[in-house]
Amino acid sequence: MTLARGARVDVVADARLTGADRLDPFGADAVDLHLADGRIADIAPVGALPRRGAVLDAGGAWVVPGLWDHHVHTVQWALDAQRLPLRQAESAAHAARLMGGAPVLGDGRRVGAGFRDAFWTDGPSLAVLDEATGEVPTYLINADVHSVWLNSAALRREGIPVEGTGLLREGPAFEISRRLNAVDAALGDVAVSAALQDAARRGVVGIVDLDMAWNAEAWNRRLAAGFDTMRISFGVYPPLLDRAIAEGLETGDAIDPAGLVRMGPLKIISDGSLGTRTAACSHAYPGDPHNHGVLTVEPAELIELMTRATGGGLACAVHAIGDVAVTYALDAFGLVDARGTIEHAQLVAHADLARFARLGVGASVQPEHALDDRDLSETVWADQTAIAYPLRSLADAGANLLFGSDAPVASLDPWAAMASAVHRTRDGRQAWRPEEAVDAAVALAASTAGGSHAGSALQPGLVADLALCERDPLTADEQELRAMRVAATMVEGRLTHLA
């Protein structure tokens, strides 16, 4: 039988198992996985049981649980391919020159993304950007998405006074990103479909979608158009919390009969970011003694939002990057008895490490950010006494790690995330803070639906969300992890990718 995307697999033949928590007797021997009703019905030695139905020949590949990305801004990530990359911009003047040559999109804007002004010796200014870009509305999105630099034409288009440097931070920047993401639904859905199919090629079977929109409507529309590539858990932000509660949507509720798309958490952004120098920290930023970052949601408001969400059956995903923000978020989880995650947790006080496990709060972290930010954190956070990017410390303290990308801030690539978490390096550089590396088994489990506490061993009875990969993730080196090829991806035994 010739298999193709969309086919249901009955037997995964000649596969190899991995996982540090395995209890099976097969060791390094190849096995057949027999599937039924979307679950693993049995695991047996190769050929020991009749191979009935559709057989997928694994050819000795390793079979692992399907991978999840626990933090994605889906539309913004999908549209990122249309935006001029600015990661290479060495200065504000350089970024402005690059944007002067950027293509004009169909809506009349120029949009670039990925600049890191914390490394620039000059600062953004309207004069510099206007000179390079003229009267074409031009938008430059920071790599961390917490600031956006606009020229005068863009400010006028958005109804914002033409003054200052043109750099908007936090709430105003998010509003600009929201407007840029509000493209024609048909065009946006095509971009989302293509991007998620690319993720399926990496073994991804699910994402947590944290777009700043009413995502129930968007996903119902995509489902009606035939979307079936992976599982989606979609979030909601405070301005739409009342609507979610009024519509009776609780975390885990499916919006389609197949249960492919489900309600996720209330997402609350409680502080800023490292790159924008607005993450709320206990010690001031260098050269700016009055700048400890910002709490974009004060503790009392955070508690009130989480109380309403919890009463409405919603989990909470609290963005907290600086150690002060993390402390307040943990306080709120404890006071409200809420369930959910702290997103990012990039700077954590020693005293707070054990509170994650004690309160049952997941640590939704993005390992690639540690390497993106290694040079910046060594300068901007040089005076901080809390632990930066504490993966091993959190794991050792009993926290459940859930890996993600924060795409488009980093690429949606779980193998890159695992490589960064395990090896703490890329591009041939010396490992950065290797004491915070986790072992490969933790990294693999953290890249699945249940997180590091769930383990990664396969056994009968589990849902057949699976990926076939060319190497054993538990023994692959850093380069092998980053280059990992996936032969097939399945959601409940249905092929969503086949190489």
Would you mind describing this structure in some detail?
The protein contains 17 helices and 23 strands. It has helices spanning 74-79, 92-100, 126-133, 152-157, 171-181, 185-200, 215-224, 241-246, 299-311, 323-336, 353-359, 367-372, 374-380, 391-396, 414-423, 440-446, 478-482; strands spanning 11-17, 31-36, 39-45, 55-57, 62-65, 67-72, 84-85, 110-115, 138-142, 147-150, 167-169, 204-209, 231-236, 261-269, 316-320, 340-344, 347-348, 361-365, 387-388, 401-403, 466-469, 486-491, 494-498. The strands form four sheets. Strands 1, 2, 3, 4, 5, 21, 22 and 23 form an eight-stranded mixed sheet that branches. An eight-stranded parallel sheet has the order 6-12-13-14-15-16-18-20. The protein has 499 residues and is α/β, with parallel strands linked by helices.
Give me a quick take on this structure.
With 499 residues, the chain is α/β, with parallel strands linked by helices.
Measure the end-to-end span. Answer: 16 Å
Structural class: alpha/beta
Number of strands: 23
Strand content: 15-25%
Question: Topology of this protein?
Answer:
Elements (H helix, E strand, L loop, with lengths): L10 E7 L13 E6 L2 E7 L9 E3 L4 E4 L1 E6 L1 H6 L4 E2 L6 H9 L9 E6 L10 H8 L4 E5 L4 E4 L1 H6 L9 E3 L1 H11 L3 H16 L3 E6 L5 H10 L6 E6 L4 H6 L14 E9 L29 H13 L4 E5 L2 H14 L3 E5 L2 E2 L4 H7 L1 E5 L1 H6 L1 H7 L6 E2 L2 H6 L4 E3 L10 H10 L16 H7 L19 E4 L8 H5 L3 E6 L2 E5 L1
Parallel strand pairs: 1-4, 1-5, 6-12, 7-8, 8-9, 12-13, 13-14, 14-15, 15-16, 16-18, 18-20
Antiparallel strand pairs: 1-2, 2-3, 5-21, 9-10, 10-11, 17-19, 21-22, 22-23
Helix pairs in contact: 2-3, 9-10
